[in-house]
Amino acid sequence: MKLTQISLTLAAFGFAFHANASTLIQQVRVFDGQKILAARNVLIDQGKIMNVDYKGQIKADMKVVDGKGRTLMPGLIDAHVHAYQDQDLPLLYGVTTQIDMFTAVPLMQEMNKRMANGSNTHNADLISAGVLATAPGGHGTEYGMEIETLTKPEQAQAWVDKRIAEGSHFIKIVIEHGGAGYKFNSLDSATVEALVKAAHVRKKMAVVHIGTFEDAKVALKAGADGLVHLYVGSAISDAQSKELIALAKQHGSFVIPTFSVLESMAGVKAEDILNDAGLTNMLNKTQVLPLTNPYGQQENQAWLTAPKKLTAAMHAAKIPVLAGTDAGNRGTQYGISLHHELALLVEAGLSPSEALAAATSVPAQAFHLKDRGRIAQGMKADLVMVEGDPSVDITATRKIVEVWKDGEAASPLRQQKAAQVAQERAVKNNAVRLPADGRISLFSTEKLASPFGFGWVPSNDAPMGGKSSVELKVFADSGLQQNAVKVAATVNPGFAFPWAGIAFFPSTQPMQAADLSAANTLKFKIRGDGKTYTVGFTMQGSFIPVTATVTADKEWTEISLPLSRFKGLDTSMITMLSFNAGPTPGQYNFDLADVRLVKE
């Protein structure tokens, strides 16, 4: 994900801020954050819960809401997100607070101001770590943001103090060494321990991202307040579970399993929410895309064995389990994914009521948010009302009737977003008209031209802080009887996934979407040094391409790739086609010609 351009539409849809008249929710079942209460009247006013069992008269200026057969809950809290875009979404799905584990400091600071002056009525509140603590070349440095990294324990206190001065609510630490096909540098255990101590000296929490069982041990031994992930794995022994539980109990730590993103890593889609039209009717095409495009290319349910077993064991041992999605990553989406996460927590052994608590009172207590997470007098009037009883059927959280943020109903926002999405879906096909032969490579010595779009450009990882480079040279090939382009790429370490190559922008402006649904096949000719290269399509709303690999043999070879081979590709919203060398460092040379998008 790229975090450099962030726009926050805070005066969403043009609704003015104003103080509401009091609202009386009548005869509604209440989940108070811990338990179900029998049907009652709940009074809210001036952004607060005034009375959780109102028995007085109905006054003329009260707005009365029917709660019969419905359940009123505290506003949901997603305990793990990266809130760099789509600020409108969480509230539409009843998520009134997001615990952010890494986002741009200006966004965090703006949200801090809005929350402080009471003008954040139309967005979920953001409780953010701001910048995370990581090593040079560590996880978190791959997104194109400048990050102050650490190499030794002596830097910890100054680093923590800078984050607090920026407005961070807590400290996020990364222990991550990478996985198959990629590696990260990671903080050592001494630096992790120093960071935890430095945070605690300033009375701030310190939570840790981990990727393995061993990482979890390091984090908990260092005294981390919480693990903000579990990890994928096909097995975990009872002895390993007991070891982590003992460490968590020793330090009073909590855990956020983030099943939604672990499923994505395992190639599992959240089909239950994808197939729920009542939920997806507020997602535009770009916002649906992450849910349809998980990280794993092949489904591997076995990878979920370890986190499920460990979550069940920790819950049974009374380690606090919090609901968090890691929204902002592929396979997830803000707001909507939390409803999927609740169902996964129930699958892992929590009762529906315990899962509801994991998204309300438990994260509020864990992150010391004393004004939310409960339905009690004086609490913020951040509320969700649903049809049915989610303490019996957890999927009832998806049947949202109304959301209140600081006492203001969000139904106008929900209705307007649904109308916008419906209008988008009603637009007729606007596909680019492809040339008769489908050729999009009109290479000449003057220009890397194309019959439509911005055209062809050199591409490398420099915009993301990488050190790779590429040179392009057009030449006439007598055998092909057309021009080709020679790509000389130098792939250097410096970015987590380094690359260099050539890219085509199909729209008139780079990184704007074009509808290429008139094609179903990509064809091109390639030759080169015998190495493997990546062909990728990037879609609107994502900076991670869906890819296939090809080999550049010494002689010209025509490659034909059905677009169906690019898993998760939506051809109606393509921003870029690329041919790249990497990520293995080295020198690469390949020639490219006769690139065509055709219908077969």
Automatic annotation (TrEMBL):
Signal keyword on record: yes
Keyword Cell division attributed: no
Domain NADH:ubiquinone oxidoreductase intermediate-associated protein: start-end pairs: 456-567
SUPFAM superfamilies: Composite domain of metallo-dependent hydrolases, Galactose-binding domain-like, Metallo-dependent hydrolases
Source organism of this protein record: Undibacterium cyanobacteriorum
Protein's name according to its UniProt entry: CIA30 family protein
TM region(s), chain numbering: none
InterPro entries: Amidohydro-rel, Galactose-bd-like_sf, Metal-dep_hydrolase_composite, Metal_Hydrolase, Metallo-dep_Hydrolase, NADH-UbQ_OxRdtase-assoc_prot30
Keywords: Signal
Record domain Amidohydrolase-related: where: 71-408
Pfam families: Amidohydro_1, CIA30
Region forming the signal peptide: 1-21
Domain of life assignment: Bacteria
